[in-house]
Amino acid sequence: MRRIALALLLILMLSAAAASAAKDDSGVFRIGVLTDAKNLNPYFGFHGTETMVTGEIYDTLFNYDEVEKKLKGNIVSKWETKDNYTWRMTINPNFKWSDGKPLRVEDIVFTYEMILKNKFPGQMAILATFKSVKKVDDRSFDMTFTTPAVSNLRFAGTAILIVPEHIWSQIKQPRAFANLEPVGSGPMVLKEKVDGQYIVMEVRKDHPTRKYNFDRMELIVVRDQTMGILSLRDGAFDFFDDRIPPQIAEDIKNNPGQYKNVKVDVNNTTSITTLMFNLRKAPFSDIKFRQAVAYSIDSEKLIKTVLMGYGTVASPSLVMPFVEWSNKAIKPIKADLAAAKKLLADAGYKDVDNDKFLEQPDGKKLKVSLLCPNAGTSMTVAEYIAYGLRGIGINAVHTPMSADALLNEYKGGQFDMGISSMGFSEPRDMYFYYFHSSRGELGEGRVSGFNYGGFKDAEFDELSTAMRSENDEEKQFAQLRRLQEIVAGAYYQVPIYSAYNISLYRDDRFKGWTSVEGLTILNSHTFRNLAPVK
Amino acid sequence: MKFIKGLISHPTGRVGLALVVAIALIAAAAPLIAPYDPYDLFDRDMPRLAPSSAHLLGTDHVGNDILSKLTYGARISLIVGLITGISSTLLGAVMGMMAGYLGGWFDTVIMRMVDVMMTIPSLPLMILIATYVGTQFYMIIIIFTFLGWTGMARTVRAQVLSLKSQKYITAAELAAASRPYVMFRHILPEVSPLLIVSGVLSAAGVMVAEAGLSFLGFGDPKAISWGKMLFEAQANHGLLLKAWWWVLPPGLAIFVTVIGFMLVGYALEEIVNPRVRRMRMMQKLFSKLSGDKGFCPVPVKPEGGGAVDAR
Amino acid sequence: MSFAYFVKRLAQMALIMAVVLTLNFFLPRIISGDPAKHLVEDPRLTPEMKQEIRAQYGLDKPLVQQFAVYLKELAKGNLGVSFAYRRPVSEVIASKIPWTLVLTVTAKLISILGGILYGSYAAWRRGRLADSALLSAAIVMTAIPSFWFAMVLILIFGFTLRWLPPFGMMERGLRMMSWEMVASVAKHAVMPVTTMAVPGIIGYAVLVRNSMVRVIGQDFIRTARAKGASPAIVLYKHAFRNATLPLVTSIGMNLAGVIGGAVVIETIFSWDGMGLLMIEASRSFDYPLMQGVMLILATVTITANFLTDLVYARLDPRVKLE
Lengths: 534, 311, 322
Hints:
B: 311 residues; mainly alpha; elongated; C: 13 helices
């Protein structure tokens, strides 16, 4: 017994010694993450952590600057086109792989061709309009697309990470390659990775474009939100990579003494929570009915009760006003129960059988189901909306289901209405993908795109197709503004609110945190500005 | 009736029965007892209020009165526990009787089915079902029943095998009684004490299991149950915000109810089987419940312990 | 035990294995529908691209044909490649098992040892305080949800007293298999092991106590004591022998749990073992991985049951296996 006690004591002392022999860690930037990076294959990252790690290990041809709102060269230093189909690009010769070899045009050609040959699912979508890439000389190459859409470069240039040919050409099955010892050209190299525990990366100070002022970045896996917040409070991380619920933000505001050095960043996002109707079905095919439903939603009250004030009303254009191409003339819908009731009565909805609920104009019973996720604020909001609808005589019930089942229902195209969310900024093409009628067609019982409710408008179809290949930004903005008017007037997706993004960080070890509207505090600008306090 | 009388005269049984009856009464009279209606959206106050005279246990993250939720929660917890306890025991009994009495192919097929069910890890299966079929509380009952009948089937089969050779069964068969008739008329009453005890214990186990399932986020999204209240408190940082009035009561409610059921089961076993000693019963109880805590509510094996130790 | 019996049991094992294999393959696919749908979700993909991606993963063929391919690969020892890890499933599982074993084996050993000690003490002091405390402890432990117990431990020892790390398996920057690393892992394992071992000790204690009480009153024990043997020796030499049989059965039956890990505990403590792997595989619809984990668990369970039967037959000469 005594021997065991002695051994235990020894172990404890050893571990205490290990803990006290702390090195200088002032240049180590620590992030708490909820999921581990399971693989480091740049084409199979599913979660935020995976894409965060590969994004620092590898480079893309271009970067998109969220503040200046424009495309900036990264590996590519010069690019030009005559016809919008083929781009001639010149590379920056100073990029080096972490094994010392220089990054060559061949690596770029190899990367794109490998993706097309192996048909990686995630990248195939990005390269949907991609045709070919050809080497011109040692410093330049041609990239060709099948359409003249201006977003082509944004899709193909900022989302595809370039990998070294001398490593990847040896790999027989890139789809079954975990890439746990990655060789990249990016601003960081992988030092250590323990599955499910942590990832340590070291900054390469000689990177030609992305320069960081700290020495190391550590990602620490913590699987529970409460524990992540507690660890941040105790100083184990400098940032916790998760959306923080409003009640925690309130708690920190009320008890600053308990959260020393913890800062709360509250920011707008482009994401808008909406109520989506299935226009394929009655009564939702009737715009008067949809409008009446929209009038029953009191956004301001919902923000107060459900989000504790951490959100803002959104306009039916579904584009937040700080987005460059938003149509600011479109105003949010005001709740108006009297108007809602009048609209319903005018459209012929009457309570025929005196059960306190309205019947359809043809006398049929009216009962609608409101689909929603089975947890979180979206479910609470659905509950309130269903309740509000019953208040104006529409018999509505909310039906919560898992995220996966919900998507299944939406894709099946047979639902009544449901809670959805969307965000538009860049690339502008996404507006096309959500509302063009071709994206809402039912094939083999599945909706082909994001237009789950089957919105159809001839003017929208024509104008949005033109918008995609419009090079003159002025003209494109005018088109986009008109498109927003069409969407707003159709009452297909009615905005409920836009919830703020709340994140937590500490400012005692690092300074340079940069808040950018519409993004979390951990954005590319923060990365660039971040520097140790000491 | 005989059991209830026995329970009342049994010291621990009395305590258990009192607890169970009290909770059943609370569940039945919830609308009368609860100060607010937690299912009514507009009967809500500000979120996360500390206990006060208006809300004896404060309010939760959406402003619902926690005391009212606790009272209404008894309904779902009891319904899920009782129905699953009864249905899995009955299913197990019928399967066990068929295997034992009919023998032959029935026996082989059913017993191999039991073997297979015992080797399939139940958790991934549950997650799949919960994701695609939904987690309405009747689904939870169906899943638990489907996964929980095997242990009972084995026990009943063994019992039936020993009964089969007895004279009155043979006599009934000679009198040309049909097989189902013999099964339900003669064999079922013989094994019924066993079923009652097992049903009560399963109910207790299911209540703990429902809490475990809810803790991983697979509770019925529309219903209020104690397990889900715990999940909500955890997911909305009840611990971090030090809201003990949010975190403790549902845990205590589960605890008290489960103990009530266990004491009843324990006393019943003693009444049914007076020769068995207390601790032996405890061993049985313990292995029945603890091995599967979390996922497999009802015993997977007579010895307890599924393929996955959910602890 | 006859050779014929052995063969019969083996055949039975094979049959169960075959059924489990089939269910393992078809059940998830039937419940959730198309396994490829998570791969071809993006609406920008054209129908031809979707078809090509399906073909790449072998998901374009009919289910039965996919099953045939699966069996053929399995025969070669190939469990497939995990969707999320992009590594062979066998490799992923092999990397998690040691971590789970650290936790479960330690907890099991402590439970068994503690259970034997407490159980024999309670048996010796039958009817006294230690004995009745065991009964109450057993009732209380069964009614407390284990995740609850874990959360309370974390709150007290991890965040309030700060004696122990609240989550994770080891500190950063330690050399693999160095002394510092072992010490760090040991420190991180204290809380999860405690959460598992406390109910474990009580469970085994009840088992041991009951087996021993049965013999303590018997003549040969009384004789031994009358001969002047010390209580400890009597307990160990005579009474404890009697308790080994149910103990072995119970341990054998729960062997799969040792490999399968403890799902809730591993989730709460961020312990990267089999339990966490299983729940993550199911949540992210990583079919090859899910299948692999289920297969391993089923194999261990079936084998463990088989071995337990054999050991049982060896230990207890009275038992004739059918």
